[in-house]
Design a protein that fits this description.
Helix content is 31%, strand content 42%. It is α+β, with helices and mostly antiparallel strands.
Length: 74
């Protein structure tokens, strides 16, 4: 957990280092791999918003699609 928290906090210094995953509207969702976990986040101006932290064995594509669909309905 300490490593996961440390890596998430480091995104404030290097926010665009994660791999681009998909675009939600005009916002690019990025993925950072931390051990067995995947951190999904957005960079909005100078703010990093962590959307989800999931175990790598999860069906993250399905979960992200559900989150995006729910956000569109709001």
């Amino acid at each position: 957990m300490d490593d996961l928290e440390k890596r998430c906090r480091s995104l404030s210094r290097f926010p665009r280092r994660g791999t681009p995953v998909l675009t939600r509207g005009d916002v690019l969702l990025r993925r950072l791999v931390v051990g067995q976990y995947l951190v999904f986040y957005e960079v909005l101006d100078r703010i990093v918003v962590i959307d989800a932290v999931l175990h790598g064995a999860r069906d993250y594509e399905g979960l992200l699609e559900k989150r995006i669909s729910a956000a569109k309905e709001e």
